[in-house]
Hints:
By secondary structure, the protein is of the alpha/beta class.
Amino acid sequence: MVETAFRINGGQPLYGEVTAQRSKNAVLPMIAAALLPRRGQTVLHGVPEIADVMIALELARLVGAKVAHDRENHTVTIDAASLNNGRLPAEYSQKMRGSVLFLAPLIARLGYVELPGSGGCNIGERKIDFHHRGFARLGADVDYLDDGTTIIRLNKPVMKGTFIYLDIPSHTGTENLMMGAALAEGETIIENASVEPEVIDFGNFLVKMGARIQGLGTPTLIIQGVEDLNAVEYTPIPDRLVIGLLAMSAGIVGGDILIRGAEPTHLRLVNAKLEQMGIRTVSTGNSIRVSRDPQRRLSPINITTHPYPGFPTDLQPCISALSTVADGKSYIRERIFENRYDFTEAFIAMGADALISQNDVLVISGVRQLKAASIRANSIRAGAALLIAALGAQGETVISNAYQIDRGHERIEHHLSGLGAAIQRIEQKPEREREIIP
Length: 438
């Protein structure tokens, strides 16, 4: 067996322009929601060619939808008129946590769904039982089998509107229950809903399909159910997480880059933190310019992750990578996922001074220079952090398990090399068989 890896020769400042990809976390629920219309073709533009999207499209095919993928133009067309299978196969659903988003469309269209188990990054509990409780509130019966399979069935023709409170403002939980409520009979109120930009964009997508949703961008959503939703054409928002990776890549090695196709308001707090570290960011229209003098050391930073508009947990590993070469001690507090520090051992292998305190704070004392090492990406965001660290390291670093990075970043080596980074995709024999769920 052969897997792909990235080989990076660090220390090259970045210069030039790059265009950001569209958001993975907006596209995935839109692919699922494209199964809701009983007729017509939903067309999504700007769809990134990444591993998680490929899995979602295959799941759509396996449940009976007709899917056309124009890779050259980044366009996907989905016709769900022939939807006929409510069972999500384990070999696909366990590769990606986003498979949970198929629950609502299959319940609404077929009256049942079987989910063997959803995968994704192994960064903590990330329980999805509140999804199930939400569907139970909407009138479905939920059963758990001994093998871990969840079966959800409707005992009436349609779901019924109700009041739902989310224990945490989960973006997938909010999106799933928005879909269910959109076709439920009567009014549904979702309290403590996620207000992340991707959720708002997805809500706008549902509204364009004919859903009646009030309160997008606030913790309280009021949804009046409709009988049917329509197939539409839509372009999702830019991916703020990939933009953050690109900005921090320039931040660790210095240089001057322009990121086009961005939505700067989605990164206000992130950019403010980068400014505190000594990285200049200038937003103009749909572009962000990022620059830093390569001879000047970064300043240390304090970070506490929090749901939007707080500092995003998905960019915590990346700013931790910047902290490894800052001139002083940084304190990183992860308050969303308990296993989000899954990059720490790799940092230490590269010469970073990092430790996790007894109260679960990542303390990083900056060093002048990271060193090259052979390391492994354990998750999407950890992989992004290792890319940044490798760009700033002296010598040749090899990051194995590039699959994890590919799950969320389209041709990242192409974008970085276009800015002057010395990065290549290579093939190598893995030290151990790759697990499918990290």
